[in-house]
Amino acid sequence: MNAITAEGLVKTFGSGEKAVKAVGGVDLVVPEGTVVGLLGPNGAGKTTTVRMLTTLLAPDSGRAVVAGHDVVREPQAVRSKIGLSGQYAAVDENLTGRENLWLFGRLYQLSSKDASKRAAELLEQFNLTDAADRTLKTYSGGMRRRLDLAGSLIVRPQLLFLDEPTTGLDPSSRLDLWDVIRERVAEGSTILLTTQYLEEADALADNIVVIDHGVIIAQGTADQLKAQIGGERIEVIVHDPEALGKAEQVLNLGSGGQCLRDDHTRKLTVPTHTGSKGLIQVIRDLDEAGVAIDDIALRRPTLDDVFVKLTGRHAEDEDTQAETAKGRAS
Q1: What CATH number was assigned to the domain covering residues 2-81+157-227+315-325?
Q2: DSSP string, 196-254
Q3: What is the CATH number of domain 233-299?
Q4: Are strands 190-195 and 159-163 parallel, antiparallel or unpaired?
Q5: Where are the domains of the chain?
Q6: C or N terminus of the chain, fewer CB within 10 Å?
């Protein structure tokens, strides 16, 4: 059964010549109990898509069913079954961590007693008990993000939307938050995760959907996406720039002319279908040709390689067209 089914979602900001189509016809399926990563650069349409799926924006056209309810006809029913953690911590700096979570509980219509109990449980789960009665002005960025995520779990939603949850966090805090997300998955939650961090999607998502300029351009598992760009490659750094030509000839001979050359870095790249055996053979061929090397490595495709091939740019590159048209509508 699917937790999310979207068909032909479209959202345009502005009108006339200044109109910007932030989302141009998105079809999306998220099976229950899975993590789907919505991957793309800023301005690609990720946040706008999430806002439509969580009833914060009405689509111009298309249809979406979330947790069994239509997002346009049954917005209240959708909201009662989901949790949402946005790009920026939606917390009150003048309240303590405990007070923030209690307030979230009351907004979800929990009794004061139940809200207090749930707040205590979440503070412990997110390692915030020691800071529970401090105002948020004293919290670090990572602590605020953990508290914001805790707030989205106040009523134990089975469907959770995480919109770039680790933006602005240091590496240690990011890894801590990854662990929290994995715990939610282990408990059976379904998660739609938007991110511009390739390693985040690779580490957390069962399936990845790549979006750019408001349309989905690829989807599949991380391994399936990586397989699209042709498998493994061997990278060689030649010691002497004068030997680059000779080394290129050697590698072209073994690869049928597929060697790529970068004179600036003295790097040669050649595809291989035999893994470590191919690496050993390249070392032997270069040694027999008398070519000295500084480094050699077997490289597997990364999601960044996939993204560059699909879009011609890196996932972290800025594309602010949609943001200019509508605030942070990325």
Answers
A1: 3.40.50.300
A2: S-HHHHHHH-SEEEEEETTEEEEEE-HHHHHHTTTS-EEEEEES-GGGHHHHHHHHHHH
A3: 3.30.70.100
A4: parallel
A5: 2-81+157-227+315-325, 233-299
A6: N
